[in-house]
Amino acid sequence: PLALGLYTVNAVYGDTITMPCRLEVPDGLMFGKWKYEMPNGSPVFIAFRSSTKKNVQYDDVPDYKDRLSLSENYTLSIKNARISDEKRFVCMLVTEDDVSEEPTIVKVFKQPSQPEILHQADFLETEKLQMLGECVARESYPEGNVTWYKNGRVLQPMEEVVVINSQKIVDKSTGLFTVTSSLQYMPTKEDANAKFSCIVTYYGPSGQKTIQSEPVVFDVHYPTEKVTIQVLSQTATVKEGDNITLKCSGNGNPPPQEFLFYIPGEAEGIRSSDTYIMTDVRRNATGEYKCSLTDKSMMDSTTITVHYLDLQLTPSGEVTKQIGEALPVSCTISSSRNATVFWIKDNTRMQTSPSFSSLQYQDAGNYICETTLQEVEGLKKRKTLKLIVEGKPQIKMTKKTNTNKMSKTIVCHVEGFPKPAVQWTVTGSGSIINKAKETKYVNGKFSSKIVIAPEENVTLTCIAENQLERTVTSLNVSAISIPEYDEPEDRNDDNSEKVNDQAKLIVGIVVGLLLAALVAGVVYWLYVKKSKTASKHVDKDLGNIEENKKLEENNHKSET
């Protein structure tokens, strides 16, 4: 390398400087010497080497004590390079007739330490010019140059927005530079999370280089521009009995810590932290909720619907009615939305709602009216009706001769609730072949059956008794030798209805015949009475008393 046309040696601070003597060794060389030149041009000799005696001598120069080394080819080495070694050194070769000189320029370079951003601001405020920090690059030579960056882009000075001031300090003992650059900056909201850094540019033996500091992110404070209210809930909908947590937030930094909450029914805002909790809410909590900053600026609102479901079952609980009575049943629903209603009887879902115009035993059971709001999780109501249908014992007895012609079966058909207890008694000779057998008690009905072989006509009595009444019915049964018409033991409801209809028809016919006979008798009586009156008039006109008597006798016979 050449500096101003001169040979230059570039050295790194702290390393060894090696300067060859760039002269050809002449014949008759007596010795070689190295010197350096003072700023005023005066020489200072530092090393001497004889070509004949091969000895080396170093001059008493304090700056180079124990640092010099002169080789046989007159190459000078200086250990632990310093900034003060930046001089013009000259190699001299001396003969008896001549002195040859060749200068060498020494340049020393020192890389700065990695720059640091010191005295960092705790936070930055928008719309305010303030000191962000100082970038410091220490112990460099020559001095470095500091540049500020934001998100990888150079920050250019701008009045009242970006203000950069730099200064350098030289250590007199080492000659090294420390460069400091301060940055004043007016941030915006967008500078939140921005990365600030500085880079120092310096020169080394091989040219220009850079070192970058670690990036720094500053907390940027800016005022709230918008307020938001939220409903924090574990479910998408709110129902009676739930807890509601309202959260109000502002988009400023730092965010506001206190707000005013406006609750339906409250005239004034309630001062609270960023959350407001309502427990066990009722339907009257439905409405518009608002929150604002404590200065009542920047407000936001939301609407909350507290869903509810009411069920009224009439009647409910345990109800006891008599068979044949009417029982109106109503299940009334009041809800925040359309609800689904269904009925369950004895754990079986019903297709229609129950309606009782004439209660029967099969109507008894456990009824449940249940309703749900499908859109609201967990909102379900149910009420129960335990219906008891009571009735006095009703008895019907049937008999038939068994196919073996050796016995007869007598059945006592019983209805009633609570279940009647049945007893049998026999009047006359004959024995009960077996004990009474009862069928299953279903819908208030069952039957008790006995088998007998009567030797003569007997009377069987069936006694049914429950808490309401004692009912007694008897049935005459002929001796086993006299066959009797079979009668069905069990009749279903349809057959019973048919029998009843047939009985009604027969009774109607009989009554009709009786009425017709009565009408005919009245007509005949009127006719005879009219005939008697006419005969009397004829007798009077003829004046035949004898014939009148005969006619009266005849009429009397006719009447008779």
UniProtKB/TrEMBL annotation:
Keyword vocabulary terms for this entry: Adaptive immunity, Cell adhesion, Cell membrane, Cell projection, Disulfide bond, Glycoprotein, Immunity, Immunoglobulin domain, Membrane, Repeat, Transmembrane, Transmembrane helix
A GO CC term assigned to this protein in UniProt: dendrite
Domain Ig-like span(s) in chain numbering: 103-212, 223-305, 324-386, 393-473
A Pfam family of this chain: Ig_3
Phylogenetic classification of the source organism: Eukaryota, Metazoa, Chordata, Craniata, Vertebrata
Record InterPro entries: CD80_C2-set (IPR013162), Ig-like_dom (IPR007110), Ig-like_dom_sf (IPR036179), Ig-like_fold (IPR013783), Ig_sub (IPR003599), Ig_V-set (IPR013106), Surface_Rcpt/Adhesion_Mol (IPR051116)
Principal location class: membrane
Entry's transmembrane regions: 505-527
Membrane topology field: Single-pass type I membrane protein
One of the protein's GO biological processes: cell adhesion
Intracellular or extracellular location(s): Cell membrane; Cell projection, Axon; Cell projection, Dendrite
Domain of life: Eukaryota
SUPFAM superfamilies per record: Immunoglobulin
Protein name (Swiss-Prot/TrEMBL): CD166 antigen
